[in-house]
Amino acid sequence: MTSTLGYAILTALARRSRSGYELATTMGHPLGCFWTARHSQIHPELQRLVAAELVTFEQVPGPGPQRKKIYSITRRGKKALREWVVEPPQARPERDELLLKSYAAWLADPAELVKLFQVQLEEHERRLAAYEDERSSFTNAPGRESRRFGDYATLWYGISYENHRIAWCHWMIDQLTRSRRPSPGPQLTTDLCPSQEPQFSLSEAQEPQLCLSQEPQFGKELCPSLELRLSAPLEPQFSASLYPSCEATNPSES
């Protein structure tokens, strides 16, 4: 069974024949903005593709004393590639280290996280600029039957992804910067007023205390020893004076 890397190699060879070195160089950078492979992975996979008669090669004079191999996709390889293209992709585990770090961001120093996301932001901006330069080579969107359509489709995905990532990095930096500002204390907010957020103070409320002096007795009486004491009202106190535009009006006074 051909691996996904094998199909990536077939896709590259379907565009033009290449040497093993050219394949390694091409796939050392994101192939079509989406796929990379190491040199040590490519040559063993090439041998498997040759054994499966999906790829063939010819030897030509090289720059040195040794001859080099030029690999080409076979008719059987093209047939396998066409069938694979329309198959549902394999489920892959989602693994994004930066997202994982964001999930644990509450444990870290916000100032250090801001530095991390600024570096990530600059990297995504650099990639976006490179993709935009490449897009300038297209005067029009190529037809779907052109091999350039694949270039354009994956390039468009890369541009969309980088724009999304840049926007998210900006949002994270903004949130982390806000978290470093002094806060008056724990507050709840609601949307009673569209222009401003009224604040509810919970500073006077205390946790309910549950006293279990004895084991509860379940019989004619319902837990006579179970005592629930509330030392302060639980309802938050709303101060309308902070936001006069949100004050409730008594209909009888209007």
UniProtKB/TrEMBL annotation:
The keyword Coiled coil applies. Residues 95-176 form the Transcription regulator PadR C-terminal domain. It comes from the Bacteria. Residues 9-83 form the Transcription regulator PadR N-terminal domain. Residues 114-141 form a coiled coil. InterPro entries: Tscrpt_reg_PadR_C (IPR018309), Tscrpt_reg_PadR_N (IPR005149), WH-like_DNA-bd_sf (IPR036388), WH_DNA-bd_sf (IPR036390). The keyword Coiled coil applies. Keywords: Coiled coil, DNA-binding. GO terms for molecular function: DNA binding. PANTHER family: TRANSCRIPTIONAL REGULATOR YQJI, TRANSCRIPTIONAL REGULATORY PROTEIN. This is DNA-binding PadR family transcriptional regulator. It comes from Streptosporangium saharense.
